[in-house]
Automatic annotation (TrEMBL):
It comes from the Bacteria. This is Metallo-beta-lactamase domain-containing protein. Counteracts the endogenous Pycsar antiviral defense system. Phosphodiesterase that enables metal-dependent hydrolysis of host cyclic nucleotide Pycsar defense signals such as cCMP and cUMP. PANTHER family: HYDROXYACYLGLUTATHIONE HYDROLASE GLOC.
Amino acid sequence: MLKIETFTLGPLQTNAYLITEETGERGIVIDPGMNPQRLLTRIQGLTIEAIVLTHAHFDHMGGVDAVRKAAGCPVYLHDLEADWLTDARKNGSERWSDVTEPLTTDPAEFALAQGQKLELIGHKFQVMHTPGHSPGSVSLLCGEHLFSGDVLFRKSVGRTDLPGGRERDLYDSIRGKLYKLDSNVRVYPGHGPQTSIGYEMENNPYVPA
């Protein structure tokens, strides 16, 4: 049984997730955001097998460098954003100078792709390419747990007015992929509270079922 811990990090209140397996000794980190000190303290003594990025906007990748160095683990990111980690203009940190200094880090070690299944901490994580908020946005499904990044929020959706965003792609991702999942699937978004697929299908004012 997975244990899922949420760390709300940085000035944009980004949800970073630490997922550990049954023994609590091995884990993965999804979206280590800015100012990750609390997360770094928590993972001391754990074997972190991977950092998985739902996308490479600065508020989601700000802690990659610190976590990767502390844990000695690889980073996974969709190929469409392969150069965003090394480019402060593309990851947005250069644009948001009132929030952060320009942020860069080394490239990801591994690429994510639609339909890929990651074998991590003894569990399978299915990769769903869900563009719209950004071109390389992915959602990760493990059992009845979905990590949706900035694609789907509780009664809201990700913004599409940033470079590479596209409203039609976002709605297609949600309706064509996420809403095809079981209604009981729990959604862990990049910002804000948890929700479920069934709740969003009934209550999301932006993308009704």
